[in-house]
Amino acid sequence: MSAPVKEWSTQTAIEQIKKCDFECEGGPLANNDAWRWIVTMAERGPEFWPGQAVWYEVKADVLGVEMRRWAQFKVLSVTAGSDADRRYWVYTITDALPDAYYPGGKNTVQNLRAASLRATAPTESGGR
Question: Which end of the chain is more exposed for a tag (fewer CB within 10 A), N or C?
Answer without folding.
Answer: N
